Q: What sequence folds into this?
């Protein structure tokens, strides 16, 4: 046809990926765990965006949330306690074309990996960062997490948590070069999907704190919020994400919030009386570290050798 | 100066075959720069050269304090020079106090020529004058030949700020004393100050010439050290070990160095930060040591084998991620520039104390390759080798160097890199989905590695026990098999190694085994003992994990085998120490365990390189005890 080689034309068949292409092993989280809903949303989104599974890498640390890569049909790196972010940043550094996801938890990200959380936000490499925050250590069987509320009884604090919880939103919004901060609850699938989609489409680190149910060790924490939807404040804006009518029926309280307004985002994050859901902050123009770290990836061997010989010549006697 | 003048001057000079020179000063007076330049000039003139920096731990220690001694030793000769040697022949000192720490280290002998700035004799502070006068009496009593010279005053005729200029004046003096070609020195100065203005270069050229003239007019001695023979037509480069490491990273074709500042490793990254972009590479300064190795592992997992460079305390922090790289079989190069430990220890000083931590540092069984560079040249070539080993054996490779190699400068043959040295282009061909991500060959433990981007190659790497499919598996069989396969790779590598060559006769009374930067000093000591008729040989190991083969056989041809190392061991004559409870030096532990030979050891932790004279005495004592 048109003088082209017929064999060649076979190679341009489009690949179409189904949800099955993104599914890995059967999820082993407890029944009723909020993580299942997040996994479903991620599978669906990758299918909708048609991201090739072989160029997708899911990186995690340690904890219930960090099992997510095992349930994906993509490349995965199930790393170490608190170290998901520097592993993910390293993957992105010289392979900026890879679609990198990080799944981590409140203990992994906000406690043992705190330094990396702060600096990864500052690097602002293009990746989707999902923090599964259930306010408790689950995999190690009920210890206090940095986001456990004051008085919450655990095996390490049987008399109740003795410190007020850390606020991940104010911390993240306070970091230089932060570019995307959103919060969502796992029990609103349409909103969860839209928030993750916005984070994924964002060029930079899309930080999503997912308030997530742990029915085994911290049922009361999510139950109290589920039973009192008036505490939840839905953020909407023409620059923000599309809001499904069912979401508006779920959360009666909503306000207009411009996600480009960092000060307003910080105020919302600071307000302890409400739980904002939606996109708090979005700056599409923040510089991304991989733009620096990947410089020179295109160098040919010839060019590398020329540079090397020039370097050696400077020391030649 | 005209070339004819050089020849004329050289004709009057005393012919010698080697000398050890030191420049000792307060921190910040430029002694190291002067010494390194003098070393480069001497190397360019064909001498063998070895330089060792004398570095205080603080950036700005108090002036005129023994602990603040900062400076450099340059050993130069008509043959290849492989170590710092014993006592200095000539020392230039900017004040008398800093010499005390060098004297305490045994750096000088009766007959060492001291050129000292005489300005302290006129110091406005009476106590300083008194200290100076007392010191000079003491130095003379110890046999030093003292020349008091108005160095700073002479510099003041050229520059209003002699504090920053007198180092180049001293360089000029040394050029006269050792009959160096001033044009070569001028070129070196122009290179050093290439980023400064022409004015700066001009002043330093004037200082150089002034120093040269000053030495000619005020000193009644001059030396000539002929060049090494057989160098014609060969190209050499002069670098220190850390620069060699950086060049090695580029020569290996690695694209990423991920690091966190730590002494004495950091200057390798300083060098790379300056030039890495010229080969398309990037230096990532991570938020901490842990993130530095995690970042490198991430890059390696994605197919771009990376390097991370650190020193002892950083190695300790990297332990957990190193085990992840072992468990997940991720190639990685970790260069460890050893310093004194434990804890923060001696940040600027040499030790070989990280050997066992490198091999056995991780909880659980974490077999990995550990190699040690013995020369500055090997600091370069071993990075190239390490990257290839890491990828072939799908494992982290630890490359050990130390503070002695890191800051020492030496000329060595210029590498002629080829395409094969560089990392191959990242493989993005389709992966046969029937091949598991750990398709272990049961004979060797080796397996090909899927890289993100390969269609059909997806797997989830985990630090948990896993099957060959990389599926988490807590069952007994899977765990045993995984451990077997990771360990098998070490045996497979060992099978490719040749037995090490003995230096000296293959049989005799005493065999000295060393590793790392002590190579030159040990061999020089062995030469001296052999010249006295003793049956001593030595052996130097580069592969520490797996160990080089054939050791037990080699050891069997000697009456006694001992290691000589710069790390801690109990002295058998110390209180409470018995042959049963004695703690051995690190290589000795390893060799005893591996060979069941009763390997003895001698080691010290003086924070200084070993000197041939010191080792020679040890060998003589051991030989004597064999007779007894």
A:
């Amino acid at each position: 046809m048109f003088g082209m080689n017929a064999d060649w034309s076979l190679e341009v068949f489009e690949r179409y990926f189904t949800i099955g292409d993104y599914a890995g092993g059967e999820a082993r989280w407890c029944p009723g765990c909020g993580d299942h809903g997040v996994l479903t949303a991620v599978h669906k989104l990758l299918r909708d965006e048609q991201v090739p599974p072989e160029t997708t890498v899911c990186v995690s640390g340690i904890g219930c949330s960090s099992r997510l890569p095992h349930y994906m049909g993509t490349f995965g790196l199930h790393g170490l306690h608190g170290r998901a972010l520097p592993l993910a940043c390293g993957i992105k550094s010289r392979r900026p074309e890879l679609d990198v996801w990080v799944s981590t938890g409140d203990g992994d990200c906000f406690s043992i990996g705190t330094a990396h959380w702060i600096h990864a936000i500052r690097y602002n490499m293009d990746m989707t960062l999902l923090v599964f925050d259930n306010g408790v250590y689950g995999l190690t069987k009920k210890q206090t997490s940095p986001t456990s509320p004051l008085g919450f009884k655990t095996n390490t604090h049987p008399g109740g948590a003795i410190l007020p919880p850390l606020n991940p939103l104010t911390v993240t919004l306070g970091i230089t070069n932060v570019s995307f901060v959103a919060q969502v609850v796992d029990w609103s699938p349409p909103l969860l999907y839209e928030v993750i989609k916005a984070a994924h489409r964002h060029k930079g680190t899309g930080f999503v704190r997912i308030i997530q149910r742990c029915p085994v060790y911290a049922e009361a924490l999510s139950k109290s919020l589920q039973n009192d939807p008036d505490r939840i404040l839905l953020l909407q804006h023409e620059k923000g994400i599309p809001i499904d009518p069912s979401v508006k029926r779920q959360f009666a309280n909503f306000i207009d919030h411009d996600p480009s307004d960092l000060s307003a985002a910080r105020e919302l994050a600071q307000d302890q009386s409400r739980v904002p859901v939606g996109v708090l902050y979005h700056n599409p123009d923040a510089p991304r570290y991989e733009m620096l770290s990947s410089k020179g990836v295109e160098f040919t061997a010839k060019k590398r050798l020329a540079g090397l010989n020039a370097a050696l010549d400077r020391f030649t006697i | 100066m005209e070339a004819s003048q050089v020849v004329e001057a050289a004709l009057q000079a005393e012919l010698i075959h080697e000398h050890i020179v030191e420049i000792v000063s307060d921190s910040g007076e430029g002694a190291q720069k002067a010494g390194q330049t003098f070393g480069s000039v001497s190397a360019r003139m064909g001498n063998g050269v070895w330089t060792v920096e004398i570095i205080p731990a603080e950036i700005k220690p108090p002036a005129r304090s023994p602990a603040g001694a900062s400076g450099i030793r340059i050993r130069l000769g008509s043959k290849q020079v492989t170590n710092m040697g014993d006592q200095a022949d000539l020392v230039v000192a900017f004040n008398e106090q800093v010499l005390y720490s060098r004297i305490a280290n045994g750096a000088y002998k009766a007959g060492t020529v001291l050129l000292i700035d005489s300005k302290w004799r006129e110091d406005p502070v009476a106590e300083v004058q008194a200290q100076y006068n007392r010191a000079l009496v003491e130095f003379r009593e110890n046999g030093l030949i003292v020349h008091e010279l108005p160095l700073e005053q002479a510099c003041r005729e050229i520059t209003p700020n002699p504090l920053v200029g007198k180092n180049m004046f001293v360089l000029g003096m040394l050029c006269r004393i050792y009959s160096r070609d001033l044009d070569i020195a001028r070129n070196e100065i122009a290179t050093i100050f290439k980023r400064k203005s022409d004015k700066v270069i001009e002043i330093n050229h004037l200082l150089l010439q002034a120093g040269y003239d000053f030495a000619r007019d005020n000193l009644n001695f001059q030396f000539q050290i002929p060049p090494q023979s057989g160098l014609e037509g060969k190209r050499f480069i002069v670098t220190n070990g850390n620069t060699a490491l950086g060049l090695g990273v580029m020569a290996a074709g690695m694209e990423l160095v991920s690091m966190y500042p730590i002494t004495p490793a950091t200057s390798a990254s300083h060098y790379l930060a300056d030039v890495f972009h010229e080969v398309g590479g990037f230096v990532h300064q991570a938020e901490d040591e842990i993130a530095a190795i995690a970042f490198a592992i991430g890059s390696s997992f994605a197919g771009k084998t990376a390097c991370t460079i650190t020193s002892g305390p950083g190695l300790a922090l990297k332990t957990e991620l190193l085990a992840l790289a072992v468990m997940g079989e991720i190639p990685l190069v970790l260069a460890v520039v050893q310093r004194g430990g434990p804890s923060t220890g001696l940040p600027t000083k040499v030790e070989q104390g990280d050997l066992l931590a490198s091999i056995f540092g991780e909880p659980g069984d974490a077999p990995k390759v550990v190699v040690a560079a013995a020369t500055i040249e090997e600091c370069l070539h071993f990075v190239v080798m390490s990257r290839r080993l890491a990828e072939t054996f799908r494992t982290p490779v630890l490359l050990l160097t130390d503070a002695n190699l890191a800051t020492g400068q030496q000329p060595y043959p210029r590498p002629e890199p080829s395409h094969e040295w560089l990392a191959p282009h990242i493989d993005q061909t389709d992966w046969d989905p029937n091949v598991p991500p750990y398709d272990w060959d049961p004979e060797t433990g080796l397996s090909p590695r899927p890289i993100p981007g390969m269609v059909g190659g997806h797997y989830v790497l985990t630090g948990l026990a896993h099957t060959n499919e990389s599926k988490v598996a807590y069952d007994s069989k899977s765990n045993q098999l995984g451990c077997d396969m990771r360990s098998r790779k070490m045996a497979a590598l060992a099978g490719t190694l040749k037995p090490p060559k003995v230096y000296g006769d293959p049989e005799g009374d005493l065999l000295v085994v060393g590793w790392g930067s002590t190579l030159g000093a040990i061999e020089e000591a062995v030469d001296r003992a052999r010249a006295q008729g003793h049956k001593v040989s030595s052996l130097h190991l580069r592969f520490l994990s797996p160990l080089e083969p054939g050791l037990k056989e080699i050891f069997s041809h000697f009456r006694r085998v001992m290691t000589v190392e710069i790390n801690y061991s109990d002295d058998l004559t110390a209180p409470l120490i018995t042959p049963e409870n004695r703690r051995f030096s690190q290589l000795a532990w390893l060799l005893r365990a591996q060979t069941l030979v009763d390997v003895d050891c001698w080691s010290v932790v003086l924070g200084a390189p070993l000197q041939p004279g010191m080792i020679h005495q040890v060998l003589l004592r051991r030989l004597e005890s064999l007779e007894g």
In short: Chain A has a mean pLDDT of 95. Residues 235 and 278 of chain A are 5 Å apart (CA to CA). DSSP finds 13 helices and eleven strands in chain A. Residues 17-313 of chain A form a domain with the Rossmann fold fold (CATH 3.40.50.970).
